[in-house]
Write a structure and sequence with these properties.
This protein has 2 domains: about 250 residues, Aspartate Aminotransferase, domain 2 (3-Layer(aba) Sandwich); about 130 residues, Aspartate Aminotransferase, domain 1 (Alpha-Beta Complex). It contains 14 helices and 14 strands. The strands form 4 sheets. The protein has a 7-stranded mixed beta sheet with strand order 1-9-8-5-4-2-3, sandwiched between helices. A 3-stranded antiparallel beta sheet has the order 12-13-14.
Length: about 400
């Protein structure tokens, strides 16, 4: 069976993990700092804060941006649950912007038209690895004083080009914070894991403290335990202070050792993903029952990292349901996945916020037809050809 996504692990990755296992630190050690610095340099950001998963990174983004009760947070209707749940975690109201009918990314016109005074943050999602129209989204949000977060969990190593200059996601000027995922199906993996990147010194410092229970060991930050007792006033090498309610969102040295090894291979991963996407585009373009992905801008073609490859399929034209199509592909050894159900249609969101069918028509239309097919760097050309023929045979 060819899965829709899969990690790529080689002997260097294994050796890096074994080295970490044999070291003095399994967590809270030097590999975490090394990985953060290497990743920040790679994407072109000032700070990177590695955490246990990307959901934690999004939660920290909400906290450091001081989003809370009474605030509204807008994200794309076409995304995973975490992009919206992070707002609910802090008591804000998650809300959803419809998607562009061509790119299936957040629609800037829709965002502008739905703007209300209580919107304090916009989370644009780099679906499949491609950024939305970030310059326009940033212009709209900043005009109203809102924080811009790019959920680039699909986009590690990818980027965009504007006015002849190329930027990596996490290193462009149109987001205040960017988050990434290192889940096994993503372009780079640490097993589980995520990271928050920003150029904002205060955001980064706050995220680091919140990541570790709200604790600090920095003497310049100490406020004391509130006692004149010599024992309680002593601040030896063991001393720490919890200055706010934080979380255990730490990542391990084992994971970061794997991340460092994977980061060296990331350009090769992305190059292979782009090769496979070109093969898919060539095979599926100009067929009346399939629509291939559309770029936000043509100049982004050589910058998208392509986490997933999603087709729009006219199932009625095939006279088959999506369930039947997925079963037929599976019988041919080809896995597939549906990404995503519009978040606001989930029972929790309908029951809690009163959202209902029809809120984001383009996202709903997309959901009715989308199907993601296998895309990962270890796919062989033979497997890619088998996937293509299995899909084209659906029509016959």
């Amino acid at each position: 069976m060819i899965p829709y996504g899969k990690q790529s692990i080689n002997d260097d990755d294994v050796a890096a993990v074994v080295e970490a296992l044999k070291s003095d630190f399994l967590t809270c050690g030097p590999k975490v700092d090394e990985f953060e610095k290497a990743f920040a340099e790679f994407v072109g950001a000032k700070h990177a804060v590695a955490v246990c998963n990307a959901t934690a990174a999004l939660h920290l983004a909400m906290l450091v941006a001081e989003i809370g009760k009474g605030d509204r947070v807008i994200t794309s209707a076409n995304t995973f649950l975490s992009s919206a749940n992070c707002a609910a975690f802090v008591g804000a109201t998650p809300d959803f912007c419809d998607i562009d009918q061509q790119t299936h990314l957040m629609c800037a016109d829709a965002l502008e038209n739905m703007w209300t005074s209580d919107i304090k943050a916009v989370i644009s999602v780099a679906y499949a690895g491609q950024s939305a129209d970030m310059p326009r989204i940033a212009e709209i949000a900043r005009e109203h004083g809102a924080v811009i977060i790019e959920d680039a969990c699909h986009g590690t190593g990818g980027g965009l080009e504007r006015d002849g200059k190329a930027y990596r996601q996490g290193g462009h000027p149109w987001a205040d914070i960017t988050t990434f995922s290192f889940h096994p199906v993503k372009t780079l993996t640490t097993g589980e894991g995520g990271i928050l990147v920003t150029d904002n010194d205060a955001f980064a410092a706050q995220a680091r403290q919140l990541r570790t229970h709200g604790m600090t060991r920095e003497q310049n930050d100490f406020s004391g335990l509130g006692s004149d007792s010599p024992a309680l006033s002593e601040q030896g090498q063991w001393y720490y202070e919890m200055q706010q309610l934080g979380y255990n969102y730490r990542i391990t040295d084992i994971q970061c050792a794997l991340g460092l090894s994977q980061l060296k291979r990331l350009p090769q991963f992305i190059e292979r993903r782009r090769e496979i996407v070109e093969k898919y585009n060539t095979a599926f373009t100009n067929r009346d029952w399939i629509k291939t992905p559309t770029l936000t801008c043509e100049q982004d073609r050589d910058h998208v990292s392509w986490h997933i490859y999603t087709l729009l399929i006219d199932f009625e034209h095939l006279n088959k349901t999506r369930t039947e199509v997925m079963a037929e592909l599976r019988a041919n050894g080809v896995g597939s996945q549906v990404l995503y159900i519009p978040v606001y249609l989930q029972p929790y969101y309908r029951n809690t916020y009163g959202y209902h069918e029809g809120k984001c028509p383009q996202a709903e239309h997309y959901y009715e037809r989308c199907l993601s097919i296998p895309l990962y760097p270890d796919l062989t050309n033979s497997q890619v050809n088998h996937i293509i023929s299995s899909i084209l045979n659906l029509f016959s």
